[in-house]
Amino acid sequence: MDSIVNIDDFGAIGNGVHDDSEAINKAIQSLAKQKGGVLYIPAKTYAISKELYINVPGMYIRGASPYFSVLKILDDFSGRAAVVFEPDSFQLSKGVGVDAGLTIDCNNKMAHGLLGIRLYDQISLRNVEIKNVHSEYSGFRFAQDKEGYNVIGQSLLLENCYAERATNIAVTPMYYFDRYQEVNLIGCKSFSSVPNSDTPQGDAFYLKDCKGISFTGCSAAFSQNAITLEA
């Protein structure tokens, strides 16, 4: 079996108009059957109407280009986020992420860019750009599947990631972490409102019941608050 799967081989078109979500999810399921691997996204724009759902360990998304490998949310999109990492249990959430760059165009639709549920160890997101994020949604959102102080996620690395709002209205934080620890953000940038907004709103980075979070060379622009803590 090939550990690197090209989504075009499963019928994805990549013209920015045709709905490629079914083809891409077929490619994901192919990797799931062989217990992980790399989902390769060529340098084209792939339109999606459904979330891309990854629920097994050891699976990474690899774009041919951080800027030209694009997932674009369609007007009739149905789902929580363009990309969802949600393992069946926290023991199975290791070793997932984006390892060579990807752009997600949220198209100002009601969905997060990337959603991680109770991710746990060896999680890496590199060179991920999320743009045109809706005012009520996050570019990057890391949450839990249930309540409880002992329910946590851990060991996340975000490097050279970027998230930008579609308008100057911001209700939801751009980067949101709920009960995560051992998180490193390196060179990450957040525009909570549209660039050059005269009335910036929103939180760039929001940390709820988190610990062991480090920021290195990160920035928050066009935001009301750079970092907000909730305990």
Automatic annotation (TrEMBL):
Pfam families: Pect-lyase_RHGA_epim
Domain of life according to the entry: Bacteria
Lineage summary: Bacteria, Bacillati, Bacillota, Bacilli, Bacillales
Protein name (Swiss-Prot/TrEMBL): Rhamnogalacturonase A/B/Epimerase-like pectate lyase domain-containing protein
Domain Rhamnogalacturonase A/B/Epimerase-like pectate lyase: 4-90
